[in-house]
Amino acid sequence: MSEAVVDDIVALLPPLLQSIETLGFVARYLHPPDFGEVMRMAGTPDADLRAELPKLASWPDSFAHLRGPLQSAGNHVVAAFDGLRAAESGEGDLVTVFRALRHLPRSMEALYPLAATLPPISDLFLDEAARADDDVRARLAQPKHPDSGVFHHDNEPGSRGGGFSFYVPETYTPDRAWPLVVALHGGSGHGRLFLWSWLRDARSHGAIVVAPTATGPTWALMGEDADTPNLDRIVAFLRSRWSIDPERLLLTGLSDGGTFCYVSGLGSASPFTHLAPIAASFHPMIASIADAERLRGLPIQIVHGLHDWMFPVELARQAQQALVAAGADVTYREIDDLSHTYPREINAPLLGWLARGDR
């Protein structure tokens, strides 16, 4: 490899990866009244990135396989910070912030193909404990299974119609049954973007994760339900090709996706063994009309933020009471510093819960 290219990569990766982590911090701690303080704490990790990105244009075409992903990821990071700062300066609103943060998963999607060749990028897709785990590193150093990686099925960005994106760990082997996580995006989200909320933890702890996209503008919370049959088809497709444990099927989701966990996951024909609605709305009628046998002993984890401004925390507390009264095995997690955002730190505990097969 060209010495100049190596020097450019060494200079580029730290600000790129730090900027991605900082965008994750902003996304996690986003709370409208505190947005200015969060941005102050975020600082300007993208400044050095902006200085290094133009150097990639001079690379020989023989390094296009590295240049393309790095440029794409860097451009998404820069666009994210531009949007956030526009909102901070009064040139945008909360919608501007959400649109800016959509560049975060796009940057991660661009970088993922380089995880196999650049160790710092591989670390981006591992949690902190796994980065220090020699066994995890040794497994990832082995040739990856040909049926592993990130896949997209009719799920281009911005599309609707029930497509899906999914991840099978590089360490996949068909000689054992793997847990499956079905992760549902929020109302204005998209499965292709939401997949990256889970990939780091699925890769670290060994789980297959699929992120479907709603068939309509959001999940079928009212009227005809086209999403539940679509979820059934997606699960059936994955089970037909990969070795999946039928006793460890988790349905989880954020906001409208979390609410749809209740609507779909409490149905008598649902294949899911565990439910984890996050920042979800809830009405006691959901428990009262659910199949009593289905609810009895069903493992459910409810995750909600104390400062949720869209669905007040009282809704989650009511959900816990109603579902416990109906016989479900409910764990309630109320996060003191969480607003209406996705708490990625919950993924590892959810995977641990799923691995135990608590029933």
From TrEMBL:
<keyword id="KW-0732">Signal</keyword>
<dbReference type="InterPro" id="IPR050955">
    <property type="entry name" value="Plant_Biomass_Hydrol_Est"/>
</dbReference>
<keyword id="KW-0378">Hydrolase</keyword>
<protein>
    <submittedName>
        <fullName>Phospholipase</fullName>
    </submittedName>
</protein>
<dbReference type="InterPro" id="IPR029058">
    <property type="entry name" value="AB_hydrolase_fold"/>
</dbReference>
